[in-house]
Design brief:
0% helix; mainly beta
Length: 124
């Protein structure tokens, strides 16, 4: 069993930056696929970024602005968010998939473990 805890959210002006962290406990998740998703009220959860054994993947809306990375020694995955826009406002969740070779890194239903989320608000 893996427990995930996100942190690093907050209020930032448009054009600013935030770094979200997703810390895992319970066991090492260095081999897991880890994804970030976001959700706003009344909308479906949206894929943001994922990191797998084969590389990193991003939604078109964040490509070039967001970077996902992992520190296996700290059992933590990060999401560096630069050039933030008001439309990036959402609750951001990290998720982990123990099926390391899954190619459906964009599919929320592939992930078994979820954090509680952290709020990101970008003001204009």
């Amino acid at each position: 069993q893996v427990q995930l805890v996100e942190s690093g959210g907050g209020l930032v002006q448009a054009g600013g930056s935030l770094r979200l962290s997703c810390a895992a406990s319970g066991r090492s998740f260095s081999s897991y696929v880890v994804g970030w998703f976001r959700q706003t009220p009344g909308k479906e959860r949206e894929f943001v970024a994922a990191i797998t054994w084969s590389g990193t993947y991003y939604a078109d809306s964040v490509k070039g602005r967001f970077t996902i990375s992992r520190d296996n020694a700290k059992n933590t995955v990060y999401l560096q968010m630069n050039s933030l826009k008001p439309e990036d406002t959402a609750v951001y969740h990290c998720a982990a998939n123990s099926r390391s070779y899954s190619s459906r890194w964009f599919d929320e239903f592939e992930y078994q473990y979820w954090g509680q989320g952290t709020q990101v608000t970008v003001s204009s």
